[in-house]
Amino acid sequence: MSSVSTVKEQVTASELAEFLDSRQQRRRLLPIAIGVGVLSGSVTLLFRGLLGLGDSSRTKLIEWSQQAPMVGWLLPVVWAITGATLAVWLTRRYAPEASGSGIPHIEAVLYRLRDLRWRRIIPVKIIGGMLAIGGGLALGREGPSVQIGGALGGGMAELLRSGPRERLTLIAAGSGAGLAAAFNAPLAGLVFVLEELQRDFRPSVFGAAFVAAVVANVITRLFTGQLPVFAIPDYPIQPLSTLPVFIVLGVVCGLAGVVFNKVLLAMLEGVARLRPRQKLAYTMLTGVCVGLVGWWYPNLIGGGHHFTEDVLRGRIDLTLLPILLAVRFALTMLSYATGAPGGIFAPLLILGALIGYGVGETAHSVAPFLAPQTEVFGVVGMAALFTGIVRAPLTGIILIAEMTGNYNQLLPLLLACFFAYAVAEVLRDRPIYEALLRRDLRHTPSAHMLAEPVVVELTVAPEAPFVGRTIRELGLPPGCIIVRCRDGNREWIATAYTRIEPHMQLTVLVSPSAAHGLAMLQAGCAAPDRATH
């Protein structure tokens, strides 16, 4: 009983007041969310421009170097080595949390497990991403855009002295705005916040994320135009006879998603075991591989936007499809394992387009009526592979529809994504961002340190370890107290004998001395670790 009193006394009055008065919070949040949307849209637009400059410079360098083939191949190799090495050095030196996608870091911040050093993250992510992706590493701009947007939301919350819960909402809203601006996809930005980042449908979270994503997208469209990101035809509705092939595509993408996740995590663990000089050698070797591939096929390296458009328009040589798929997969694994700033959204979309186009062409060769327009399978394949890897089907469906303008394909998208999701779940593979977050927390135990008491909300997964146990049986440390339970419209004060049930929402008070209890709560409320099955 004394531990409960101690924690309640430690929790700041401002956070509890903010927690109870959601209506007042919503009124205050919306105008601030507009500012977050403006900032996220503007900075993401700048980032996109810098990446475009890096891509065009690399392309011109390769074209010029190909005029002297005997020695010209060295130029793209040196370019890639320089960009990758500088990006990795900058990240490790000034902001290690800016490495890779950045989305797991934002999730850790939203779970109160990491700090958000926004003053360091923003410049390192922009400059490092420009060096890495502009140098040719097979990485995307969306992960950095999400982290940059979240950092801008956190920065604005700090400058306005927002409360803890309001700050987390602004970070999530800024992240969604970053995704919306990166891909001209406002609905996808909103759904990504609700489905993947916050997993919270409270009106304040929904409203802030919605406003920020729309405003960021308006800013982007003012400068980039109204067209979708991918300039491809609006393909017609596919006949019902094609649905079995879309089911097969979903199964294939579910299996491919599991392979993608396992190989990526294995690569990260392998590189983490290297000594510093060996890591430098690995980064330089990756640059060599990227440069040589760029010399052979310039569109296959970097973000790969133009290459994806070629696939979706059916402009690639089918005999090269397996080779292109294998090479791009290998480059993605090698590039992400360096730790340079860059995401996996764009790389996995390329792989999904290739897989989908390959499945469509195979079906067409067997029976043309099963796949009359094979390019459509490339569009659906992107969403299906995204679902198999990230396990966020709504985001994948809406994202691809907005990026391609192909809203006619909703039924094939739903079908393929369902089967991709089901296959990955049956194989008990952990979603990639969740797996990356857990890996990050294992390698950085200091992430669990808290500067002040916090209020945390968690939802119990159906197969979570805590299900069926009473609160007294959980083994939580003193200072980590479950104070409220909610199940649908029913809400009550927790006691030591309250039994944890699936889908129950828990409100927890955590003091700095019990910060490690956050990790216990996360593990106990989440689905069991699929890697152990």
Question: What report would you give on this structure?
Answer:
It contains 21 helices and 4 strands. By secondary structure, it is mostly helical. Strands 1-4-2-3 form a 4-stranded antiparallel β-sheet, with helices on both faces. Helix 5 packs antiparallel against helix 7, helix 12 runs antiparallel to helix 16 and helix 17 (375-390) packs antiparallel against helix 18 (393-404). The longest helix is centred in the first third of the chain and has 44 residues, at 22-65. Mean pLDDT is 87; it is low at 1-14.
Summarize the structure.
The protein is built from 21 helices and four strands.
Give the mean pLDDT: 87
Poorly predicted segments: 1-14
Q: How far is the first residue's CA from the last residue's CA?
A: 39 Å
Global geometry: globular
**Number of H/I helices:** 21
Q: Tell me the helix content.
A: 55-70%
How are strands sequenced across the largest beta sheet? 1-4-2-3
N-to-C series of helices and strands? HHHHHHHHHHHHHHHHHHHHEEEEH
